Amino acid sequence: MDKVIDENVQGSALILDTSQENNRKLYIESYGCQMNFSDSEIVASILATEGFNTTDRLEEADLVLVNTCSIREKAETNVRKRLEKFNAVKKTKPHMKVGVLGCMAERLKSQLLEEEKIVDMVVGPDAYKDLPNLIREIDEGRNAVNVILSKEETYGDIAPVRLNSNGVSAFVSITRGCDNMCTFCVVPFTRGRERSRDPQSIIKEINELWQQGYREVTLLGQNVDSYLWYGGGLKKDYDKASEIQKATAVDFAGLLSLAARSQPKMRIRFSTSNPQDMTLEVVKTMAKYQNICNYIHLPVQSGSDRILKAMNRLHTRKEYMTLIDDIRTIIPECGISQDIIAGFPSETEEDHRDTLSLMDHVKYDFGFMFAYSERPGTMAARKLADDVPDEVKKRRLTEIIDLQRKHSLYRTKKYLGKTEEVLIEGSSKKSDAHWMGRTSANTVVVFPKEDYKVGDFVDVTISDCTSATLLGNAVGLSENNG
Ligand code: 5AD
Ligand code: SF4
User: Fold this and answer.
1) Residues 309 and 357 in one domain
2) Can you say how many angstroms the Cα of residue 256 is from the centroid of all Cα atoms in its chain?
3) CATH of the domain at 452
4) 31 alpha carbon – ligand 2 mean position (Å)
5) What CATH number corresponds to the domain at position 38?
6) Does the structure show a pLDDT above 90 at 162?
7) Domain for residue 80, yes or no?
8) Is residue 158 part of a domain?
9) What is the pLDDT of residues 41-57, one digit of tens each?
10) Which residues pair with residue 53 across a beta bridge?
11) Atom of ligand 2 nearest to the CA of 36
């Protein structure tokens, strides 16, 4: 991916095909991170038991839910535009109800009801189990709000309904919330404190996915490396755990091993990693199990020590580079991607050049790059002036994106002539005669379909590339099938 990804640009309508009596139609749109898409599958599951069938047609919806993102101002502006569209539809269907879920719901709370008259219901990320009650409230004509954040809720007991799925890869959430307090970030406020999900329920979900034909899972969390199960409760309360709880605790390396062993042919991915929490034990575990993919999304945000400190990132440029070097020593072929923010408060040209030089050192496979957007309530908004002019932010962002494109091409060219195992996910967007899949390192590969099918692991010899895609021809099914 060598362009700016703005999570809010594409919402996607999700379809659930169940046949229930007494059914009402639910239309649900999701914006933001993978966690939000995963949450929508939990919401669909909770509402399926209430007799809701999902539809991809807004016009036939009885209940419209929008699962929102607050990470940048633009994400919120786009949701508000969608609410205007819902308003237009509601004029022709007065009984239609509209609920706002997710991070915007948590950030703005009942203020949303005042600002957006179309909204009947506001539900934060930890309150989805209350949806049946809240829907009864709005059915009776009252507005409903639940934005209580939880210390325990992980939805570990809910079997998500897979929505818009390719039937091959699925998300499995393992932690919720974040305790890191990066000064630019709204997430600790919208998703609360960090807590981990019971490993047994995670492994059960992975086993069920395998039986249903899934061949790849991505373990999801705002900070997966910080995963720690000691019987439930907040990560920050681990010190108070009993000796037995501590002796039987499972950390992220332990969870990865459990997952890899319980389904040895299932590809295991994870996202997102935080430099200060990622241990070499995790990297060694990745190297030990062939089915754990050689790919790490390792946001750096900036290459300048001064800015990293102002961001409260808790690692230096040198520590980050040492971690990268260690990863490359243990797993030479590991794909590595970044998140970078351009124009954080007080960022100078020198700071910006530090970011470019760090990129030159790492040569990331791809990245997600953003201009700084001040978020109300965050430490940066309270303490630091948003003083880098917009045109400077944009110019620096463009330089970062251009450099990333160059590095992406450098990385994809290294594949030329090699044979890579690819898991087929579906047809190529550009050609129905070609399959699209990914390498272990998460690089997209496109090749002629021949007799292969979705879900096959295929060995593909790479003959051409762009900065974002490898092109090649299959040479046969890989050993991983069957
Ligand atoms: N402005 C711009 N980008 C941000 N991100 C998080 N908060 C902000 C913000 N206020 C980016 C970070 C993070 C990614 C998910 O979004 O790079 O890793
Ligand atoms: Fe957006 Fe962050 Fe919330 Fe995900 S956790 S939806 S990225 S604000």
Assistant:
1) yes
2) 18
3) 2.40.50.140
4) 9
5) 3.40.50.12160
6) yes
7) yes
8) no
9) 999 999 999 999 999 99
10) 25
11) 6
